[in-house]
Amino acid sequence: MARITHQIGALMGHVGDAFDRRKIALFALCNAFQQEAKENARKAQDVVLGQGNLWTNRTGDAIQGVDGYAEMDDDGVGWGLMHTMGYGKWLELKGLAGTANVQPLLNPTVRKMAPDFFEQARAIFNG
Q: pLDDT tens-digit profile of 52-64?
């Protein structure tokens, strides 16, 4: 019985290692996507469907304050975009509320990239 327990423990160790390797690969993918999303968001501020800026860009601080992040902990791996300027959230909320001359930036950028991200993430775990 002890030998079987040892073999199961060794097998589970290899499974854990494979999962950890995939989790790290997923974190690397998250890092790549957050960087691309940040660049896409900053470009989107410049021109949206030929209509001009998403909001009046008075100082450039809000768009330069758009940042991406990737994180990994025991519970999972993820990535996203955020505003580093305190008023960035109000630009997003006004855009979601349909306020004239303001359009949301972060959520549409992430949603546009999500299908490609999930396809590549599935390949990491299924490949």
A: 556 666 777 877 8
